[in-house]
Amino acid sequence: MSVSKKLYPWFQQTWSELMLDQVPHAMLLHGQAGIGKFDFALHLAKALLCESRIKDKPCCECEACHWFDAGNHPDFLGLVPEDQFHLLPHEMMAGDDEQPKKSKKKTEDDTEKPDKKVSSFIKVEQIRDALDGINTAPHRGKWRVVLISPIETLQAVSANTLLKTLEEPPESTLFILISDRLDRILPTIRSRCRLLTLNRPSKQMALDWLALELVHEGVRSDSSHLEEVLGESGGAVLDARARLLKLDDAVELHQQITFDLLKGLEQGSRIDWLATSELVYKAPMSVLLIGLERWIADILGQQQAGYIRYYPTRSSSIIKCAEQANSNKLSEFWRLLLDARRHELHALANKVQIEALLIRYQDLFK
After folding, report:
1. Does an H or E element contain 140, and which?
2. Per-residue b/e over 188-224, b at no fewer than 16 CB within 10 Å?
3. Is the Cβ–Cβ distance between 268 and 329 less than 8 Å?
């Protein structure tokens, strides 16, 4: 979603309740991944920097809004991992060669070292460089806006540096922090922010929106397929859209790996954990854990309420697994997965982790 477009319909109510003239020095937007929190944050940042006198901001017409869209607003600073630079405004503007100072430097560095793997963490120097430069007055209007996403990718040193700034925030600086996983954030950082929950759309709203998006793109799909993809995406409507429109090669790859993982999990006690781990271990640990978590959630749902949420097309296998799995072991495994999700960003060997989890999975049926 371009920063000049309207908000997603599922955020309209939340937006209408915000009072831009009474925002705190730090807001923490949190909710499920894949529902558009980053787009909401950009819309908020743009509205705060908008120089129009109209009530319904951002106006998308004033000089400040144009600067924001071009990624050149001097009072906006977006801090994201290298692998998310494309989400910042300058990357959204077709034909825009001017990039924000921080991002431009990073792009040049990457050009010089084409084989360098991009980081999935916000680096310490990014935080230090940004926070060192916010003690002066804003260049244009009343505010400077610093957007940091996702906040859980801050390493310990960076998190402590941010915490010190939040404890004594500069008068004219507003922080917008974004998180997919509130449980990973330092309680001291959470306590210094106003929390704003961004909820995913209802199932029907998501399906209606997806149907319109596909019509707009000239793609045909029946309602049952839309429902299947949305369910497998856990209600993450933007992830579902990316899958349906094949917008992201990584999404396609992760979909295939999840398919291979589920094919193994369907075997229950007969799972070939070694062969399955060999097929899937190169995926990000988060992708593997989400697939496992949703599969176990469906088995638990079937055992406890006869309800399958994520993978209804695999209901026969889920029902069979639910009949054979030990309920106590299943609950223990669920807690193990929740704990693993808290540490999924740690630099541990994926293959070793997924092998251990699949061995534990096989044990559920003994």
Report:
1. none
2. ebbebbeebebebbeeeebbebbeebbeeeeeeeeee
3. no
> Cα separation of 333 and 310, whole Å?
18
DSSP structural state of residue 86: G
Torsion of CA 316, 322, 323, 327, to 10 degrees: 180
pLDDT at 105: 37
Per-residue pLDDT reduced to its tens digit, 129-153? 888 878 777 888 788 999 999 998 8
pLDDT for 211 equals 95
Distance in angstroms (rounded) separating the CA atoms of residues 136 and 219: 50
Give the rounded percent of residues in the chain with a pLDDT score beyond 70. 90
pLDDT at residue 207 is higher than 80: yes
The secondary structure of residue 96, as a DSSP letter, is -
Torsion of CA 228, 230, 232, 234, to 10 degrees: -150
User: How confident is the model over 223-266, as pLDDT tens digits?
Assistant: 999 999 998 888 999 999 998 998 877 777 888 899 999 999 99
The residue assigned the tokens 């593997």 is: 288
Q: What is the pLDDT of residue 134?
A: 82
Greatest C-alpha distance within the chain: 68
- Beta-strand pair 144-148/194-197: unpaired
Phi, psi torsion values for 202, nearest 5 degrees: -65, 160
Number of Cβ atoms within 10 Å of the Cβ of 255: 18
Phi, psi of 4 (to 5 degrees): -90, -5
E strand or H helix that includes residue 147: strand 144-148
Specify the range with the lowest mean pLDDT, choosing from 27-36, 106-115, 119-128: 106-115
Residue 280 · residue 288 · CB < 8 Å: yes
In DSSP notation, 7-75 reads PPGGGHHHHHT--GGG--SEEEEE--TTSSHHHHHHHHHHHHH----SSSS--S-SHHHHHHHTT--TT
Q: Which residues contact 111 (CB under 8 A, 6 or more apart)?
A: none
Residue 66 CA, distance from chain mean position: 26
